[in-house]
């Protein structure tokens, strides 16, 4: 839905902040209940991403979560399960302000994602009249908004993507990229071993290449709910940081606080 007409103004314009390369911090939602989105939206995140790749969240649930996040004044994004034009089109029609697309390993992959988000002449997205278009009442407003303000983040999570990163970032319409540390390390045969020299070299190569481009903001998903890890990534130059996810915030807080009570039981 066109946020400038149909919903309360988003507290902070994410598209403009990405263009300025401001630091933004968001998080990941994997539990498909509106209360989770509402609780997360009550905190000082700049954006929230609904994960359709590694969660049981359905498209119907995703739309409900988008509504809650957007009405709370936070930018709603969706990490789609695959680089599939039909899936991307449907979450955009549901009102997502943008998508995070996994396993973008080549310029062709990136162009495929871009074309799925944007209408012609920029892309090839088919036209529907759903929530994003005001249920048919504001297609012209949405048409202008989507080609100017929608957000495309590509995930760099395979060594092929690292090798092809310069060609990927030549596409000016890409707003940013996000390093997926687990999958990147796994593609190098070192799953979860972030201290391995090959993994470190790959991540350093990503940042060295990214420094040559002005269009794409460097991003990273910090998995553990530990602020010090976010601070480290900020120092390394990342500007689009996903800070943990709903389940880990819940489980780790339970674990840490209960640990303080062990000697009382």
Task: Give your account of this protein's structure.
The protein has 265 residues and is of the alpha/beta class. The protein is built from twelve helices and eight strands. α2 packs parallel to α3 (59-71) and α4 (85-93) packs parallel to α5. The chain is globular. The chain starts with 13 loop residues before the first helix and ends in a 6-residue tail after the last helix.
Tags for this entry?
globular; eight-stranded parallel beta barrel; alpha/beta; TIM Barrel
Can you lay out the helices and strands and say which pair or pack?
Layout: H1 14-20, E1 24-29, H2 34-41, E2 47-51, H3 59-71, E3 75-79, H4 85-93, E4 98-101, H5 107-117, H6 139-149, E5 151-156, H7 159-163, H8 165-169, E6 176-179, H9 181-187, H10 197-210, E7 217-222, H11 227-235, E8 240-245, H12 246-259
Parallel strand pairs: 1-2, 1-8, 2-3, 3-4, 4-5, 5-6, 6-7, 7-8
Helix pairs in contact: 2-3, 4-5
